[in-house]
Amino acid sequence: MIRTIARGGTRVGASRAWRTLVLVLPGLWVATVLLWEILSPPQAQLIQLLAAAPAIACAGTGRRSCVLLGGLCAAFALVPIGTAGRDESLGTRCGTFAAILAVVLASYLTAGRRARLQRELESARAVADAAQAVVLRPLPPRLDGLALAAGQLSASRGAAVGGDLYEVVATAHGVRVVMGDVRGHGLAAIGTVAALLGSFRDAAHEETEFADVLRRLERALDRHHRERSRHEHPAASATDPPSPVAEDFVTVLLLEIRPDGTVQALNCGHPWPYLLTPGQAKPFAQAEPLPPLGLFPLPDKLPPIDCGQLHPGEALFLHTDGAEDARDGKGHFFPLLAALTEAAKEHPVSPKDVLRDVFTALQRHTAGNTTDDIAILVLRNDRPALAPL
């Protein structure tokens, strides 16, 4: 299961209230002007204010309602309403009629252009959503005996994918998991995310040695840096600089979950996951991680860290640092451990519910104003317990 959240998304309740207001407002305006015209002193001539009603209708409800309301207003303009004691000639009413028709025509053309732009925007958004789903593709709710739930909160308005990455792949060597965080956030980091995920999806199946998966990611990141450098800074020389984008790096956590629940890890500067057991949340490992990928070459020897076993019913909570670094308006950090402890009170721990509860708490804590991408992956071991030998 995957859940993506983009900043700037339209709230359903607010959108419905706005549409209702736009539908009612033109009629209220017409009624107010007519009543005001009847009750106002003779020297006041307010019927010209009807010209605003078609513009309001076209701005909010579309072209047909604009024409209908415009015709209604024009008809009212020609009818001598409340003219007793007024010096109001037929020529004045005809001038008002012409002004209303001019507003109707201009508003009609504007509404048509807006409708075309809206269709183009919806088409572009559909293409962008499809492209983002290819980069950070939806995870299945279950994979090789593991229950999964994942989601991302992008710091870029309107984007469902940012600088965080995750993937879960079932292989002959066990279930292999990657969670990463590209330096920076938002749309600028998507190219690096795509390069690393593409490499991981191949390497997870092809590499027997767990450490070789990480080396493949390092090589993919280096190639991406060089290609991006050539594109952004074309040089006269055909030789690439030795470190074209040395300021770019990625934190990466790799996990390998074997059929018996044994978990091994390789960590390059990424936050360690939390182990969720009934009513409790605690760090899954405490070992010192390697530097992030892209800062220094990987060492010659990469022994995986033995994290112990993930027993049936237990869950792992993987996250990027945006979850722990999120702040409220007073600068207080998000209490992730407390939120996980509260979410783990449910038995058995539900990945979907943990994901929902943590995202809800994050949104409440930050009032919806996140400054960094946040990715969360929750997986629970649903495999039956192995019989003792």
Task: Explain what this protein looks like in three dimensions.
The chain has 389 residues and is an alpha+beta fold. The protein folds into two domains: 9-129, no CATH class; 139-381, Phosphatase 2c, domain 1, CATH 3.60.40. Helices cover 43% and strands 20% of the residues. It is built from nine helices and twelve strands. The protein has helices spanning 12-39, 52-60, 63-78, 90-135, 190-206, 210-232, 321-325, 336-343, 351-366, and strands at 2-7, 142-143, 146-157, 164-171, 174-182, 250-257, 262-268, 274-277, 280-283, 305-309, 315-319, 374-381. Strands 1, 2, 3, 8, 9, 11 and 12 form a seven-stranded mixed sheet that branches. Strands 4-5-6-7-10 form a five-stranded antiparallel sheet, with helices on one face. A hairpin with a 2-residue loop joins strand 2 and strand 3 (146-157). Helix 2 packs parallel to helix 4, helix 3 (63-78) packs antiparallel against helix 4 and helix 5 packs antiparallel against helix 6 (210-232). The longest helix is centred in the first third of the chain and has 46 residues, at 90-135. The radius of gyration is 30 Å and the shape is elongated. The two termini are 35 Å apart.
For this entry, give a set of tags.
five-stranded antiparallel sheet, elongated, 389 residues, alpha+beta, Phosphatase 2c, domain 1, 9 helices, 12 strands, 2 domains
